[in-house]
Design brief:
This protein has about 300 residues and is mostly helical. The protein has two domains: about 80 residues, Orthogonal Bundle (DNA polymerase, domain 1); about 170 residues, hpI Integrase, Chain A (Orthogonal Bundle). It contains 13 helices and three strands. Strand 1 and strand 2 form a beta hairpin. Helix 6 packs across helix 10.
């Protein structure tokens, strides 16, 4: 009951995404089952940190990564914060917990050449080809998240003002400008979309008129980029990463990129400065008057 109440709280009050709520449900049920079956604890409110440590050990023994374990413990921590809030427990058993160390993932962006090569290869004039090209164009020109693209509605696109309205995490709204070239592809797609009996007001649809879905967007990006890129990961998120990196490389300020990405703080955006810094070093070494002087 408490877990269900917490998930309802996440959905209605915290406005968490369905994906987050589903992940929390899996993690909390797994911990609840561990407490009952391995620790003989019948009430999840009786949990102390020593019990959580036992779970961490079991997860580690089952080869769960530190990143995965940290995510599960984050769900637990949020759950116990909620129990304190509704006066079901007096303390959070994870208060003193320190996250397990995780090796930083370096996400390598697509180069501008890779992006342009893919876009220039998308020359089909059928519905799917026109839709897929617009998906790539829109992801790269706006930096929106995959789920934001999936949930984009027809009314969110303002052709007259050349903007799109995005509803991001926690229902936070932001307005992103559109390039003139993207406007042209939007108009072409709208013509083809009108020929299909759409069953939804969502902007991107399948050939059967239904709303597109996240895995379809992933497949589209992976299929096109795998043919030109040797990277192990070819996903919509890599395009978002490329968008931010390329803007910073061209001199965009960090705060502007933060607003375009819909980040709550600069800390989230600063992950993209690594690649930008490498570009700055390259330019510096090539242009500084003393960079070619022998020591």
């Amino acid at each position: 009951m408490l877990i269900n109440s917490f998930l309802k709280y996440l959905t209605l009050e915290k406005k968490s995404s369905p994906h987050t709520v589903a992940a929390y449900l899996v993690d909390l049920r797994a911990f609840e089952n561990f407490c009952k079956e391995s620790l003989n604890l019948k009430d999840i409110k009786e949990v102390d940190y020593i019990h959580i440590r036992s779970w961490v050990i079991e997860l580690s023994d089952k080869n769960n990564s530190h990143r995965s374990i940290n995510r599960k413990l984050s769900a637990l921590k949020s759950f116990y914060k909620y129990l304190i809030k509704i006066h079901e427990v007096e303390k959070n058993p994870l208060t003193q917990h320190q996250s397990l160390k995780v090796a930083k993932k370096v996400l390598v962006p697509f180069s501008e050449k890779e992006i342009n090569t893919v876009i220039e290869s998308m020359n089909g004039d059928d519905f799917k080809s026109i839709r897929n090209r617009l998906i790539v164009e829109l992801l790269y020109s706006t930096g929106i998240r995959r789920i934001e693209l999936v949930n984009l509605e027809v009314s969110n696109i303002d052709i007259e003002n050349r903007t799109i309205r995005i509803i991001g995490k926690r229902n936070k709204e932001r307005i992103i400008p559109l390039l003139d070239s993207v406007i042209e592809y939007i108009e072409n797609y709208k013509i083809e979309r009108a020929k299909i009996a759409a069953n939804t007001n969502f902007f991107f649809i399948t050939s059967k008129g239904n709303k597109i879905y996240p895995i379809l967007v992933y497949r589209i990006i992976n299929d096109y980029f795998s043919s030109i890129s040797s990277k192990t990961k070819n996903s919509p998120h890599v395009i978002r990463h490329s968008f931010a990196t390329h803007l910073l490389n061209q001199g965009a300020d960090l705060n502007s990129v933060k607003e375009l990405l819909g980040h709550a703080s600069l800390a989230s955006t600063q992950v993209y400065t690594h690649n930008s810094l490498e570009k700055i070093k390259q330019v510096y070494n090539q242009t500084h008057p003393r960079s070619h002087k022998s020591k």
